[in-house]
What we know:
By secondary structure, the chain is α/β, with parallel strands linked by helices. The chain is 35% helix and 21% strand.
Amino acid sequence: MSRPGSxxxxxxxxxxxxxxxxxxxxxxxxxxxxxxxxxxxRGKSVGxxxxxxxxxxxxxxxxKLRDLRGKRVVHVVFWATWCFPCIQEVPTLKQxxxxxxxxxxxxxxxxxxxxxxxxxxxxxxxxLKINYPVLWDADGAAMRTYRISYIPQNFxxxxxxxxxxxxxxxxxxxxxxxxxxxxxxxxxxxxxxx
Length: 194
């Protein structure tokens, strides 16, 4: 039989006893387990796994975005011959392609079948001396897949296939972002623009 009041004296002692046991190392630390990260969903937004593209360039050579995954940082730009902001981006894209292509950057210009012809696109490519592949979206499938409603539309995709930038202009700090993605093998930077 317990004495009256003994229970009341024991209650304040329990927290102190537990603290002493924990601090003495008698209790083994619990090991945390990391939950597996879910795969990002496919899409056209920053953080998404980029939708695949399967198009031919103006010379009939096939390109598949999924074939570049794990190998190259990819900049996909939807553009048109009649789009003045698109044409304004070309000198920068040419310069960046020349500087970074050998280090692992691929630029793919996608020309949709919108008020332009493959012959007209080829003529402008030659006139502007575009040095990166220009793909012809004959049936508009790529444009529909990426839900392009205005151009230019730029997607910078890490080697892991994750979209790191999406916007109607080139990203602020474009060259630094490419450097980072090339160094990090895909990187973790994600930004969006207009």
